[in-house]
Amino acid sequence: MTDDKQEIDSLIDAMAAYLGLPVEEAYRAGIAGHLAVAHTIAQDVLAFETSDEAEPAPVFKA
Amino acid sequence: MTDFAGMTGADIAAAVRNGSMTARTAVEASLVRTEKLNPSLNGFTAITAERALSRADSVDADIAAGRDPGPLAGVPFAVKNLFDVKGLSTLAGSKINRDLPPAGEDATLIRRMEAAGAILTGALNMGEYAYDFTGQNVHDGASRNPHDPDHMSGGSSGGSGTATASGMVPITLGSDTNGSIRVPSSLCGLFGLKPTYGRLSRGGTFPFVASLDHLGPIARSATDLALSYDAMQGPDPQDPACTDRAVEPVTGELDRGIEGLRIAKAGGYFASGALPEAFEAVQRVAAAVNATRTVDIADAKAARGAAYLITMAEGASLHLDRMRTRHADYDPDVRDRLIAGAMIPGAWVTKAQKLRRIFRDTVLKLFEEVDVILAPATPCRAPKIGQQTMVLDGVEMPVRPNMGIFTQPISFIGLPVVSVPVWTEGEKLPIGVQLIAAPWREDFVLRLAHHLEKTGAVCAPVAKHQGS
User: Fold this and answer.
1) How far apart are CA B27 and CA B125, in angstroms?
2) Of A22, B284, B337, B426, which sits with the fewest C-beta atoms within 10 Å of its C-beta?
3) pLDDT of residue A59
4) Rounded to a whole number, what is the distance in Å from the CA of A4 to chain B's nearest CA?
5) Considering its fold, how many domains does chain A have in total?
């Protein structure tokens, strides 16, 4: 996925069908905007190096 | 009573306990002030007057009978409307939840506050389903900033900020997933405590992001934070993340001051990307305690990104079924973010959770060298209600998701934080500074907040707004 508008539109169509989610025309621009922001923000996360042994913290203990 | 609004919770409790004021008098004063100010400030969505007066009479009866009424005797408080309040539907800021039956019992933290003598006066406005940093709500209207009602209260615990800063009640409870206690505390000029993740039970509250949700108090003094925090600690089987760790009272620690505390400013990520007022506030606090050291919290930007992704995905998971059947009833901005959250890859979210553990380890190492880290709470003072974008460091960005850029990396790893209010002469609006400590060291940040308050470096005056 990239933040290209056409690709995001295609993703919305595909995922809406896959998940059975309604995407009315009025929702589309907002959803696309949030997906684009998420894609940008995710780059910092994905660039972060983790070893194969790194474990997630789904139930976090401080 | 001429100055109820200016009294802190500790002031009221002391007066009720020594017999110079009844709990009924305190509650009546709170209700009168709420009735006067709420129409213009919109902090409350429900006022539980009958219940509050009945409870006040019970506290007064305890005193008359020689029974200890508790350390918060007669102190009015209110809760964000995602807390279960017996007899009310738990709105969580939504239209959809209005269809829920009334809650059968109070949330755990309400019960604990009332066991300590405090008196619930109502439920508070909030951003829909807590996915918000502005305090605006399309169903109930915006909760307004009492220091300038044209400006945001901050979110998502916006009504908590409004009610506390206006003096309707001295203490409110809010929730903080990514900054929703600290942002309104900053924008409304209040003290806000986001405790260590797992310290205060979330039992009986409507969730948002289970991995990140915290609850805590907002008040006009550090002492009130400590009193309420102490009243609410303790394990709770209703919340699987709630710690079994022993209760560690902090109120008695406050007067120890800051001797021995190693305090540093956060550099790097926390020293750019905001308006100068945010950094000036941090410097003011640092100067007040002669803190000259700067520490770099490495990878904070990635940590913020990880919190952002986890929030999107877990929020979407929570609402997936409702989005299929009730999508038209959501706040459009919340709905669009939730639908987008359902579409992001699971691999991203798992990576974010891995980063979380590593980032936690990195930051905990810093706490071997320092005890408290200072950082901005928000990138700017309160924007105007309705303002969509802001310019930070020359970059225009949406207000709603970005007021939490400095709070989000901290709650991501569950660290305890107090936001303290800083005022600049000539400015109508305050801004907050985060005091951040290692897990379970609420005592450090509350001692520092109390010291800053006593020395006048920070303060939380009641807003002058008198209603319209």
Assistant:
1) 20
2) B426
3) 56
4) 15
5) 1
Residues of chain B with pLDDT under 70: 1-2
Cβ-based burial of A28 (10 A; exposed 0-12, middle 13-18, buried ≥19): middle
**For B93, phi and psi rounded to 5 degrees?**
75, 10
Interface test with B, best of A41, A49, A61 (most B CBs within 10 A): A41
Spatial separation of the C-alpha atoms in residues B340 and B344, rounded to whole Å: 7
Question: So where are chain B's domains?
Answer: 6-454
- The residue with tokens 């590593």 is B358
Q: How far apart are CA B206 and CA B130, in angstroms?
A: 9
Q: How many CA atoms lie within 13 A of B97 on its CB side?
A: 22
DSSP state of B383: P
Which residue does chain A place closest to B357, by CA atoms? A57
Burial per residue of B154-181, b for 16 or more beta-carbon CB atoms within 10 angstroms, e otherwise? bbbbbbbbbbbbbbbbbbbbbbbbbbbb
DSSP per residue, B224-255: HHHHHHHHH-S--TT-TTS--SPP---GGGGG
Give the tokens for residue A20: 């059975």
Fold for B6-454, please state it: Amidase signature (AS) enzymes (3.90.1300)
From A6's Cα to the closest Cα of chain B, the distance in A is: 16
Give the separation between CA B234 and CA B137, rounded to whole angstroms: 33
**Rounded mean pLDDT, A8-35:** 96
Interface ipTM: 0.92
What is the span of the domain harbouring residue A29? 1-62
Q: Binning pLDDT at 50, 70 and 90, where does residue A56 land? A: confident
pLDDT at A5: 85
**DSSP state letter for B463:** P
**Partner-chain residue, chosen from B241, B324, B332, that has the shortest CB–CB distance to A20:** B324
The one-letter amino acid code at B285 reads V
Q: Determine contact, residues B428/B147, Cβ cutoff 8 Å.
A: yes
